[in-house]
Amino acid sequence: MSQIGVSNLTFCYEGSFDNIFENVSFSIDTNWKLGFIGRNGKGKTTFLNLLLGKLEYQGTISTSASFDYFPYQINADQRKACWGEILEEIRPDCELWRVICELDKLQVSAEVLYRPFETLSHGERTKVMLAILFSRENYFLLIDEPTNHLDGQARELVKAYLREKKGFILVSHDRDLLDACVDHVLVLNRKTIEVQSGNFSSWWENKARMDAFHKAENEKHLKEIRALGRAADRAQRWAEANERTKIGFDPTKEPDRFIGTRAYIGAKTKKMQSRVKNLQTRIGKEIAQREGLLEDVENPVELKLMPLEFHREVLVYARDYGLAYEDEEGKRHTVLKDFRLELRRGERIFLNGKNGCGKSSFIRAVLAHCTQKNEGADTQYEVCKGTGVQIGEGDAAGSLQKKSTMQEWGVLEAASGMRISYISQDTSFLKGGLDRFCREHMLDESLFKAILRQLDMERVQFAKNMEDFSEGQKKKVLIAASLLQQAHLYIWDEPLNYIDVFSRMQIEDLILRYTPTMLIVDHDVRFREKIATKIIEL
Q1: Residue 203 to residue 206: CA distance in whole angstroms
Q2: What is the pTM of this model?
Q3: Tens of pLDDT along 323-361?
Q4: Out of 32, 329, 382, 447, which could bridge 184 as a Cys pair, Cβ 3.0 to 4.6 Å?
């Protein structure tokens, strides 16, 4: 057990406008199960890279610990090889038998080590990397968002596995995972950094109480400042009025007044002016006490949505529907079979199941059917216009272009004339500036950037190209574009991957307030429990 001490840490990326960290100091224990919480772009991954020694900084980070990082970076050549071959390249001191023991705890067969990396699913890759990570002794582990793209079952396995481990920092926006696996939290607040014992829920409860206290204190100080201001203004007027009486007077009205009274009036005025100065000093002290009270208070702006009301009751209908495709070798793979779904106005249906069970394939089939019905529209992909996804971009586009290899049977109907707002899993097509993105997708740039600000994206990000955004910021671009579009149906495919906890809560409140019709794939248990009206297991 050792300490990691951070003292007066200051860091800024070259060419950036603001410091990511400025004179930050705290300490953590390498024996903790530490959850790392913060908004997108606040510097979580940056701090992990500072611990790894990849970036230069000012200040000191003192520790005797050695670090290892998840996920491992796999190059193009390594992706074609199997783990058994590349393990020595990636981690020479890692013993294979230890990895196999860890895989057994993750309920994964050792045969995955002898299959090419690129043939493994997201879940298998994650589990192998975690097994390698925890098979090495005397390392403090830096785990960066391990559950993105994992289905519910895989998340439960990873959660159970991490629950039994210690000695790591876990960066995650999954509230369920944080509650189950951590005993301390490191939080990047708006202005400060805090370390606290407990899990996400206990920290959030404490934060809610602290925010309420700071708001009450702020209101109390504001009332005191207003009262002092009124008193100072009143005393100032009295002093000025009294000063004006020093010269000139009416003997008939003031028979007791004589030339020597001027000294008395002057002294009285001076006393009043002294009182004004004292009041102004007190105002300054009250303002100083108020400063910083609200700097870390989370007060998210309410997002807005403009869903359209469709004339038909049922928007999407599937009965005994099946979907299959042929691979390059001509082998047929069935993705869906005997699938049934009826999506009515106002419903929010979640598709739930293992990776590869056909959730995204069904969404793409719905989009393809809507595209066929809108062929006469002014764009090739009318149903998704304005959401950042068009033919030739994103995973949906790729699947639609390969539709000739897909085979369908049964009934799938999508209401004619329906407008759909779609968020893709894929963000790789986001390139260039936000102004160009708005032009290409016919979005009002000022409104679009206003929504991004409401999702807590800093204005300095607007000057950057989107390829330089974090994954969470790229997702916010797609979400903002979708919220800006009026649609009858919102289809979101894993929209919350990489999105921070605070923005997730904003989006939950938005959906519950405006009740749009939605078809959603997402594996965040808390999100699904809160907003789903129906869950369909595949």
Answers
A1: 5
A2: 0.76
A3: 888 777 777 888 888 999 999 999 999 999 887 788 888
A4: 32
